[in-house]
């Protein structure tokens, strides 16, 4: 495994399975992933193509702001994170149960 492949293997943290992500996945052939905060669109595209052996059409990333929460008397804050919407080319699909 080359250094570039090793870097790309650590970009994806987890797939996000929610009501919205399954609706988008069925309608637009798009999958949602939680990715590293420093990841770029090119990194996400390369990581998905490397891990799942599919062709990616487009990638959209967005930063999700952490919420402010109360812990007893003190106020804390959850950390910010990054989400990526990955649209696959027609004819390609990701099976999470097989991967």
Tell me the total number of β-strands.
6
Per DSSP, what share of the residues sits in E-state strands of 2 or more residues?
35-45%
Give the domain tally: 1
Largest sheet: number of strands, sense, barrel closure:
4 strands, antiparallel
At CATH level 2, the architecture is 2-Layer Sandwich
CATH topology: Alpha-Beta Plaits
CATH class call: Alpha Beta
Side by side, the strands of the main sheet go 1-2-6-3
What's the average pLDDT? 91
CATH superfamily: RRM (RNA recognition motif) domain
Structural class: alpha+beta
* Portion of residues within helices: 25-40%
Q: Report the end-to-end length measured between terminal Cα atoms.
A: 19 Å
Number of helices: 3
Element string (H = helix, E = strand): HEHEHEEEE
Q: Mind telling me the C-alpha Rg?
A: 15 Å
User: Which term fits the overall shape?
Assistant: globular
Keywords: Ribonucleoprotein, Ribosomal protein, RNA-binding, rRNA-binding
GO molecular function, one term: structural constituent of ribosome
Subunit structure: Part of the 50S ribosomal subunit. Contacts protein L29, and trigger factor when it is bound to the ribosome.
GO cellular component, one term: ribonucleoprotein complex
Describe the structure.
- By secondary structure, the chain is α+β, with helices and mostly antiparallel strands.
- It has a single domain (3-88), classed as Alpha-Beta Plaits, CATH 3.30.70.
- The chain is 29% helix and 35% strand.
- The protein is built from three helices and six strands, in the order αβαβαββββ.
- It has helices at 3-9, 19-28, 41-52; strands spanning 12-15, 30-35, 56-64, 68-71, 74-77, 81-88.
- The strands form two sheets. Strands 1-2-6-3 form a four-stranded antiparallel sheet. The chain has a two-stranded antiparallel ribbon with strand order 4-5.
- Strand 4 and strand 5 form a beta hairpin.
- The radius of gyration is 15 Å and the shape is globular.
- The model has no long low-confidence stretch (mean pLDDT 91).
């Amino acid at each position: 495994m080359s250094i570039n492949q090793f870097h790309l293997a650590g970009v994806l943290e987890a797939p996000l399975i929610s009501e919205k992500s399954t609706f988008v996945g069925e309608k637009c052939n798009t999958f949602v992933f939680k990715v590293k905060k420093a990841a770029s669109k090119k990194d996400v595209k390369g990581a998905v193509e490397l891990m799942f052996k599919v062709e990616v059409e487009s990638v959209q990333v967005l930063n999700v702001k952490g919420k402010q929460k109360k812990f007893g008397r003190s106020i804390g804050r959850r950390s910010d994170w990054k989400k990526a919407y990955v649209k696959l080319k027609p004819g390609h699909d990701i099976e999470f149960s097989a991967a």
